[in-house]
Amino acid sequence: MCGRLSQYSGIHDFVAALSMPNALVNSAGDLPLEKYNGAPSQQLALFHLEDDVLHADMVRWGWRPAWAKDRAAPINARVEKVAHGPFYRSIWPNRAITPINNWFEWVDEGGPKKQPYLIRRRDQAPVLCASIGQFPGGGREPGEHDGFVIITADSVGGMVDIHDRRPVVLTPDLAREWLDPATPKERAEQIVLHQGEPAEAFEWFKVDRAVGNVRNQGPELIRPIADPLL
C-alpha cells in the first residue's frame, strides 16, 4: 500500500458505516474532512473504543516506538508479523479503525512516470481499515509520540497488478469486533489474518497524476481519467 489515501466524508458518515450505537466523543469535528490526498505524517481521523465509548480523534499517520529513533516512522504494518514482532508490541493491544473513502497506488506502465490508480469499494461504502496505534485516551492529552499504522496484507486476484500489498479492510461487523477491547488478542489476530475483505469487493481506475503532489487537494483527484489508448 502506497502512502496516499482519501478521507473526505464527515465523521458521522463513517460512524454510520460502522453501525455502532455507542456514545461518540468526537474531536475530529462535524464538517466533511475534505482530505482528498492524505499523506504520511498528516493528521487523519481514527476510531478507537474506550470504556464502551467510540472516540474519533485526529492522529498522525505513522508511528515508531521511542527506542527506534534510527528510522522513519512506518505508516503500515505487515499482518504476518504485527502481532508478534517487538516493533509493534506496545501498541498491538491498541486497536483502531482508519475510515477512508479510497486509497491510491502507482503502477509502472512503461511511461516516463508511474500511473496512479484509485482503489475503492465497489459499493462506494466507506473503507474500514484495521489499524493500531498510540492515541489520546484515559484522560491523556494528545502527545508527540502519538501515531498509527494501517495493517496490510498480500494482494490477491487482479489487485496484484496494481500493488502487492493492500490494507486489511473489515466489514462493519468485524470492525466492531476488532475495536472491542474485550475481543481477545488471539481472535483479533485471526480477524486480520483471515477475514479481510476479498479483492472482489473493490474496483480501481486511473486518476490524474496531480495526486502525486501532496499539496494538491480537491475532488478532481478522485475522478477517473480516460485512457488515451482506448
From TrEMBL:
<comment type="similarity">
    <text>Belongs to the SOS response-associated peptidase family.</text>
</comment>
<dbReference type="GO" id="GO:0016829">
    <property type="term" value="F:lyase activity"/>
</dbReference>
<keyword id="KW-0645">Protease</keyword>
<keyword id="KW-0190">Covalent protein-DNA linkage</keyword>
<dbReference type="GO" id="GO:0008233">
    <property type="term" value="F:peptidase activity"/>
</dbReference>
<protein>
    <recommendedName>
        <fullName>Abasic site processing protein</fullName>
        <ecNumber>3.4.-.-</ecNumber>
    </recommendedName>
</protein>
<keyword id="KW-0378">Hydrolase</keyword>
<keyword id="KW-0456">Lyase</keyword>
<dbReference type="Pfam" id="PF02586">
    <property type="entry name" value="SRAP"/>
</dbReference>
<dbReference type="InterPro" id="IPR036590">
    <property type="entry name" value="SRAP-like"/>
</dbReference>
<keyword id="KW-0238">DNA-binding</keyword>
<dbReference type="GO" id="GO:0003697">
    <property type="term" value="F:single-stranded DNA binding"/>
</dbReference>
<dbReference type="GO" id="GO:0006508">
    <property type="term" value="P:proteolysis"/>
</dbReference>
<keyword id="KW-0227">DNA damage</keyword>
<dbReference type="GO" id="GO:0106300">
    <property type="term" value="P:protein-DNA covalent cross-linking repair"/>
</dbReference>
<dbReference type="InterPro" id="IPR003738">
    <property type="entry name" value="SRAP"/>
</dbReference>
